[in-house]
Amino acid sequence: xxxxxxxxxxxxxxxxxxxxxxxxxxxxxxxxxxxxxxxxxxxxxxxxxxxxxxxxxxxxxxxxxxxxxxxxxxxxxxxxxxxxxxxxxxxxxxxxxxxxxxxxxxxxxxxxxxxxxxxxxxxxxxxxxxxxxxxxxxxxxxxxxxxxxxxxxxxxxxxxxxxxxxxxxxxxxxxxxxxxxxxxxxxxxxxxxxxxxxxxxxxxxxxxxxxxxxxxxxxxxxxxxxxxxxxxxxxxxxxxxxxxxxxxxxxxxxxxxxxxxxxxxxxxxxxxxxxxxxxxxxxxxxxxxxxxxxxxxxxxxxxxxxxxxxxxxxxxxxxxxxxxxxxxxxxxxxxxxxxxxxxxxxxxxxxxxxxxxxxxxxxxxxxxxxxxxxxxxxxxxxxxxxxxxxxxxxxxxxxxxxxxxxxxxxxxxxxxx
Length: 417
Ligand code: FIX
Ligand code: ZN
What we know:
Blueprint: H1 7-20, E1 23-25, H2 43-47, H3 50-59, H4 66-71, H5 74-87, H6 94-105, H7 115-123, H8 127-138, E2 140-144, H9 152-159, E3 168-169, E4 172-173, H10 175-179, H11 181-190, H12 201-218, E5 223-227, H13 238-253, E6 258-262, E7 264-265, E8 278-279, H14 285-293, E9 299-303, H15 309-316, E10 322-324, H16 334-348, H17 364-389, H18 396-416
Parallel strand pairs: 1-2, 2-3, 4-5, 5-6, 6-9, 9-10
Antiparallel strand pairs: 7-8
The structure holds D-fructuronic acid and zinc ion.
């Protein structure tokens, strides 16, 4: 293909590549339809997303307490979010705009503000048809789930060997092992593994068998955990011991990357449920030490604090076994995505994954990705313009190659290394 010669053609090529390239969504909280109620979808789930529940209590009247809210049915909770965050509050936040984008993309008259008719439309959908439609609208080839073997309801679905659609891949979530060994030991004991309340040698051996069995059962793309800002390594902590004795040996044995999502301060206001977490600045040297100590383990890392992004990005230049990804949770806002993507391109070229959706509700894939595509297109258009001004002439094919890299190609290449 010919190199592009003028700025208008360049801009068109970048925008069309960013709009059309298939995306691999490397971290979500979706489930297969066969896992029943675990897969969330539809307008009431969209409206009661924990990001929006937290926003509800910024604007709701004082009498509406979180305690009262949780006693209500899901549609009633959704009504309250609709009333206070959307109708009275103006739907200005990123999470609120996301609901608008999603409903609009589905062809629903969200501007008409008629929640009842929107509900009626969703009631007529069949999940078996709706899931592929959402993936197609979002332009995804696949999304990686979060599969927690310590959650009894999830584990049961895997034991029943329920079918998984081709759009969903697995990831083995191990937060409980790292953050609450006694609870993990109890769950493993209940499943027939001889684990004690302390991670002694025998318990670690049993836990390794537990992980090996789960790796065999669900064939995960990686092991994953989200960690507090206090995460330190090396350290004299149970977590560091479990990493050394159990998690990292398992990662090496099964060639599984370890995904670390660092910086979440959980349960700051427990009444808000999943929305109760805040952010803290973490110590990036923990990641550095892991990369140094375990050169054979691949680390996929995202951090929650905006403050940590530059240091993490610089660190990723130093280690072939470190891949940065996503603009996680409170960073998944256009202003921050823009700044992070620009910085990552400037420091890492295309060797990173610009975003993951973290979707908890299937339909969110539509807005999370359309919003990201728009921001990434603007940033890339500027970067290619600068490159052309410097004398480089990319082809359309090269632009598509680069876009695919940051939308999942670099992740695949990193995992395959
Ligand atoms: O730990 C995680 O995977 C987080 O992404 C979630 O726990 C969080 O609730 C979330 O949905 C953030 O977007
Ligand atoms: Zn998540």
